[in-house]
């Protein structure tokens, strides 16, 4: 019975109350995830938020609050967000963080708080962040760090505290003592010196990478072995030039430094030379923006470092000193981008027999440097953004190991086959954004995987035989104009996975991703000019993007799609055809994502979606759509993502979305909504639905009527629309249903409890009246019994108690006042007697009036705190029969009771015990000895 009580109460509670929050956030967007069980990632960036929103889901994993107006982090802002892994608070106005604000973020890994206004890091500011590994506090203005500010960060590995106002190196001493610290950023700090003599560390630091600089930094001194694992040091200049003094007397202190990065002239020529001569393990040296003409002898020093393998000289203006590079014969990687090199003198690279990577992008080269052809170990060559005019047969004569060649954005107009004929290992070739007018069909590049010749001036590609491009996986020839090609043209390209072309599609059995740009200058019938059975066979296609710059019919598109049986993603940009009555996706049942954007689909109907019932994502942005009625017949029960931004939707019928049980992401931004009762249902649905996130709904603005223009849609008062009585009927019917449920529940489970309470209340009123009257007791005891036990009362009880012992008893058959309500007779009898004797049997337990009599007597017992009850059991009653009569069971456990069956052999003892009970006073005794009777009830 009790379990039924609980279950029914729970159902009533759930029916009347729902504690879940609406799935619409005022200031944030839950990023769409294909997997509904995926981690929740929340984007609240760039929303002009002044305080952390209160409606953030507690199970969020990634939270972006950057670029807002936050001024303070309060203690309860992130309460309960124990699953949070990444928190971005950069570019705000945070000045204070309450202690314990991050205490619940026990699994946070990355915390970004750069570009704020923190001045102090207080004690235990990061309490609770025991699993934090990355902390960014750069660009704040921090002047003071409490010695215990970082004590909770036992797993911190990376800390950027640069661009602050720290004055003393001792401020970072607690940081260096963190057990797992690896990378420390101190760029543009206020230190005047970095001297290890000022640090008092119990154990050597685990620091491996140090980035340090400052306008006031004059000395960098390592005199104690407190950084035994340090391997990368970076020095950069902030605003003003300072001649930094390098003070490291023992080379042993720098034995592990393998990476040194120097940006701008922070050291003098002599200073840099001194530094380089003290490093015996240097492998990577970066000299960025040093204006190398000032450091005439520096390259001689650099090239003498025997361990050096990678040298970066970008932005360093080395045109006049390029020949000195030849001394660095040990290099494997050389970066000279943006260094004003107009011509690399002959012999500059000739000695670099081990060079594998060369970057000379962003210079002023007009031809491929002559030394390139002698770099037999070269694998990567980047010559992007130069002024190279052509490629000769000798440019790459001996670079047979070259795997990546980048020639983007030059002035190359022609590529002869002999220029690349020795590049048998070439995998990537980028010739995009040049002046190519044709492409040689004699190229032999068997291992080429990526070819980009887009954004050129190629008039047409005529019958190119790609038989030697068998490894090609990605091809970009967009904006090149093609002459009609046959199936044979791409007959051997079975490994191609991604193509970007202008129009024609070929038999590529392994092609998975294709982008087609349809240019307005081409023939409108290009795709139809040859039988689709001959040129279209793309059975592995999974992703297709078509960028249409002119009218392209839906039937033409169907011809393109018919062989793509396993297509999953389709995108059409600027598609302006009428698609009503067409079935363009008839042969694409596996489509999961469809996008029609920047086109005209004003006549769109549901028929085109019927063949793709498994569609999960639909984007119809900027497509001139004015109604969503077509969605009601689309049968898209699996749809999760729906985007309809920048259309012409004035009003929306919320019943449309009832056909999408899986919809979790809905974006309707930038539509000209109407603020009137036609959108009342939609507004109510946005606020109350618990499944679909309506992205940025609180920022939707109204365009009509004119007096509401610019106001927010969700602020429209929908209560004014409820004048038809429907809402009142809903409330009335709901109340009636709830009342009916409560009535049924009370009648079935609480009827006797309420009856008992009612009689107790009557007894209380009667007791109050009796107290006022203060009348004497007329009887020694009131006898409560069932009519079936009347024979025992008259033959056994009365002769003894009244005849022999002289007690005056009250019996309802004899002493109740005729004509008076029976409940009043019972109450008068109980309160007119000193005691109440209950003759308990099976019949007694089943009697309604007997139950009321013992209830009244129980109330008097509890109210007056007097021992007024005597229980006589005529039968041996098992405890299971007493369980429903919980008030009797409770009384049996604490008060005197007697058993007639157990006194059958000695009835005189039984009556002596009754006499003894009648003689006792009224003071209750919790530990009254049981005279006899059942041991368990």
From TrEMBL:
Residues 777-918 form the TIR domain. It is a single-pass type I membrane protein. InterPro entries: Cys-rich_flank_reg_C, Leu-rich_rpt, Leu-rich_rpt_typical-subtyp, LRR_dom_sf, TIR_dom, Toll_tir_struct_dom_sf. It comes from the Eukaryota. GO terms for cellular component: plasma membrane. Its main location: membrane. Residues 1-22 form the signal peptide. The keyword Ribosomal protein does not apply. Keywords: Glycoprotein, Immunity, Inflammatory response, Innate immunity, Leucine-rich repeat, Membrane, Receptor, Repeat, Signal, Transmembrane, Transmembrane helix. SMART domains: LRR_SD22, LRR_TYP, LRRCT, TIR. It is found in: Membrane. GO terms for biological process: inflammatory response; innate immune response; toll-like receptor signaling pathway. GO terms for molecular function: signaling receptor activity. The chain crosses the membrane at residues 725-750. Belongs to the Toll-like receptor family. PANTHER family: LOW QUALITY PROTEIN: TOLL-LIKE RECEPTOR 13-RELATED (PTHR24365:SF522), TOLL-LIKE RECEPTOR (PTHR24365). This is Toll-like receptor 13. It comes from Cyprinodon variegatus (Sheepshead minnow). The lineage of its organism: Eukaryota, Metazoa, Chordata, Craniata, Vertebrata.
């Amino acid at each position: 019975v009790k379990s039924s009580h609980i279950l029914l109460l729970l159902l009533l509670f759930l029916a009347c109350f729902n504690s879940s929050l609406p799935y619409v956030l005022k200031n944030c967007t839950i990023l769409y995830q294909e997997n509904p069980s995926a981690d929740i990632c929340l984007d609240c960036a760039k929303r002009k938020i002044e305080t952390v929103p209160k409606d953030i889901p507690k199970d969020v994993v990634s939270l972006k609050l950057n670029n807002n107006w936050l001024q303070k982090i309060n203690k309860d802002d992130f309460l309960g967000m124990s699953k949070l892994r990444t928190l971005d608070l950069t570019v705000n106005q945070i000045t204070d963080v309450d202690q314990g604000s991050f205490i619940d973020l026990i699994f946070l890994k990355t915390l970004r708080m750069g570009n704020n206004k923190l001045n102090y890091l207080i004690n235990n500011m990061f309490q609770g962040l025991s699993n934090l590994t990355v902390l960014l506090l750069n660009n704040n203005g921090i002047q003071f760090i409490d010695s215990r500010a970082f004590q909770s960060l036992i797993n911190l590995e990376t800390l950027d505290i640069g661009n602050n106002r720290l004055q003393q190196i001792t401020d970072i001493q607690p940081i260096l003592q963190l057990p797992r610290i690896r990378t420390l950023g101190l760029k543009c700090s206020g230190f005047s010196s970095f001297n290890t003599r000022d640090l008092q560390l119990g154990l050597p630091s685990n620091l491996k990478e140090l980035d340090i600089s400052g306008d006031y930094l004059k000395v960098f001194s390592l005199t104690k072995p407190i950084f035994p694992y340090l391997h990368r040091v970076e020095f950069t200049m902030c605003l003003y030039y300072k001649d930094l003094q390098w003070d490291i007397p023992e080379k042993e202190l720098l034995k592990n430094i393998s990476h040194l990065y120097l940006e701008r002239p922070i050291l003098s020529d002599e200073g840099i030379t001194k530094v380089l001569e003290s490093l015996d393990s240097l492998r990577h040296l970066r000299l960025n923006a040093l204006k190398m003409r000032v450091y005439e002898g520096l390259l001689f020093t650099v090239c003498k470092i025997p361990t050096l393998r990678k040298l970066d000289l970008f932005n360093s203006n080395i045109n006049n000193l390029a020949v000195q590079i030849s001394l660095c014969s040990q290099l494997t990687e050389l970066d000279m981008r943006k260094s004003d090199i107009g011509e690399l003198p002959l012999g500059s690279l000739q000695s670099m027999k081990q060079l594998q990577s060369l970057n000379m992008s962003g210079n002023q080269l007009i031809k491929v440097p002559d030394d390139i052809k002698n770099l037999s170990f070269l694998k990567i060559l980047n010559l992007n953004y130069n002024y190279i005019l052509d490629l000769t047969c000798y440019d790459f004569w001996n670079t047979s190991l070259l795997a990546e060649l980048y020639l983007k954005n030059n002035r190359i107009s022609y590529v002869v086959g002999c220029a690349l004929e020795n590049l048998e290992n070439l995998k990537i070739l980028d010739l995009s954004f040049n002046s190519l007018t044709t492409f040689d069909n004699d190229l032999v590049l068997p291992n080429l995987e990526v070819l980009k010749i887009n954004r050129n001036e190629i008039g047409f590609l005529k019958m190119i035989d790609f038989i030697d491009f068998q490894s090609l996986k990605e091809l970009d020839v967009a904006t090149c104009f093609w002459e009609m090609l046959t199936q044979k043209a791409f007959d051997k390209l079975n490994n191609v996975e991604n193509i970007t072309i202008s129009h024609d599609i070929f038999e590529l059995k392994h092609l998975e991703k294709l982008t087609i740009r349809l240019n307005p200058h081409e023939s409108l019938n290009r795709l139809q000019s040859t039988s689709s059975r001959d040129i279209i066979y793309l059975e592995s296609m999974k992703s297709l993007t078509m960028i249409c710059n002119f009218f392209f019919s839906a039937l033409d598109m169907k011809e393109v799609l018919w062989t793509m049986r396993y297509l999953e993603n389709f995108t059409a940009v600027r598609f302006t055809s009428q698609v009503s009555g067409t079935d363009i996706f008839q042969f694409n049942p596996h489509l999961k994502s469809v996008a029609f954007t920047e086109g005209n689909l004003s006549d769109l109907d549901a028929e085109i979606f019927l063949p793709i019932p498994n569609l999960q994502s639909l984007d119809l942005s900027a497509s001139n759509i004015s109604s969503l009625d077509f969605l009601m017949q689309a049968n898209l029960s699996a749809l999760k993502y729906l985007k309809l931004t920048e259309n012409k939707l004035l009003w929306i019928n919320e019943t449309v979305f009832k056909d999408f049980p899986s919809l979790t992401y809905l974006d309707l931004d930038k539509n000209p909504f109407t603020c009137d009762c036609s959108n009342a249902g939609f507004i109510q649905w946005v606020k109350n639905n618990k499944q679909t996130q309506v992205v940025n709904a609180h920022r939707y603005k109204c365009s009509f009527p004119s007096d509401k223009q610019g106001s927010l849609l969700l602020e429209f008062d929908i209560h004014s629309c409820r004048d038809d009585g429907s809402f009142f009927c809903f409330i009335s019917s709901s109340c009636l249903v709830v009342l009916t449920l409560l009535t049924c529940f009370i009648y079935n489970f609480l009827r006797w409890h309420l009856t008992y309470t009612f009689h107790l209340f009557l007894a209380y009123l009667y007791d109050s009246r009796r107290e006022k009257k203060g009348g004497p007791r007329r009887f020694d005891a009131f006898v409560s019994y069932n009519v079936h036990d009347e024979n025992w009362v008259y033959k056994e009880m009365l002769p003894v108690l009244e005849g022999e012992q002289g007690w005056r008893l009250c019996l309802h058959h004899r002493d109740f006042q005729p004509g008076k309500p029976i409940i009043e007779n019972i109450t008068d009898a109980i309160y007119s007697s000193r005691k109440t004797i209950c003759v308990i049997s099976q019949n007694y337990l089943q009697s309604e009036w007997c139950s009321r009599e013992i209830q009244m007597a129980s109330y008097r017992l509890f109210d007056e705190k007097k021992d007024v009850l005597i229980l006589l059991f005529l039968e041996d009653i098992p405890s299971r029969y007493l369980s429903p009569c919980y008030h009797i069971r409770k009384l049996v456990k604490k008060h005197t009771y007697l058993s007639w069956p157990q006194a059958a052999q000695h009835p005189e003892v039984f009556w002596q015990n009754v006499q003894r009970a009648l003689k006792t006073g009224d003071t209750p005794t919790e530990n009254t000895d049981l005279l006899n009777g059942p041991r368990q009830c």
